[in-house]
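ok trying again, last paste got cut off:
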Amino acid sequence: MPSHLPAACAIPPPDAPAVTPIAFVQAIVLAYERRGMDPAHALAQAQIAPAALLSTTSRITAWQMEHISGLAMQELDDEALGWFNRRLPWGSYGMLARASLSAPTLGVALKRWCRHHGLIADDIALTLGVAGDTASVSIAEHHGLGALREFCLVSVLRNILGVACWLIDSRIPLLGAQLPFAAPLHREVYGVLFSGPTIFDSATAAIRFDARYLALPLRRDERALQQMLQRALPLTVLPYRRDRLLVQRVRQALAVHPALTHSAGALAELLHVSPRTLHRQLKEEGASLQALKDEVRRAHATDLLLRSHRPIKQVAEAAGFQNEKSFMRAFKAWTGQSPAQFRQQLQSTPKKAN
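nice, full thing came through this time. structure:
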């Protein structure tokens, strides 16, 4: 996404972690070289020492990456930073965002983004796909991207993810990412670049996420877009805290994986968040983990008692309880009856004639 030219006197935040690989800066420098231009000014403004370019282990901060990218986009007049056969003039990605802004849902907005991206850059094609409960955005390469391939594919995927999160004002946790090249020397950085596991040497570049996000309505308007375009690059590096589907995702995880969600830590790991984040975001949504557990377990246990003849011990296990005693105690607190009494009452109640 475009960003206004950073101020020359801008001061980087103190103690910011340096995790972005220098390989991405080297790719920007290569884009300058291909245009016969000198990157020295941009490097200096981003406070990146030339010596850092010589070490494969060098890292820069998100602030430095934002500044070098924003300056390079303006100096090269190319928001794609040399990735494609033709430049994407200043404002190209803002145009894509504006074209997607009137969509009723995220799914429609992403389809528009993918289609319009192909109109301005035919080197790659973006596709939104849905398979069951999983949505994906994949990239097909129509022309060789050469030495800029990694930087291009990673940036395009993070860009569309950042825009998607901004459009619905929600964090979208990834189920995983895949990339069609060998794991680079800085492969450990990919744990920061993409949530969920990253698989290398795949057939195509893609990200995967819960398809339910596609149905969420957009929460942005033209005024919000204008504000965002003032400083859009952080969208690709700063994750949202709020997840508007977290309560639904917790319910689903508890229902589908009862044996793997006994503790907050286990559930958080399954959802790719920290236990602290899990509790905080549920509280922001007006929910609690214990209440959701009770809701899901009660519904499942009641259904099993009504529709099956399983022993109480098996019902307890299937509902996610570690033992029969804790299940019986919880069920009595919910209904005022033991599971056996509840089942007996249901079975003794005469069915109404149609």
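cool. Residues 3-9 have pLDDT under 50 and may be disordered. The first strand starts at residue 18 and ends at 21.
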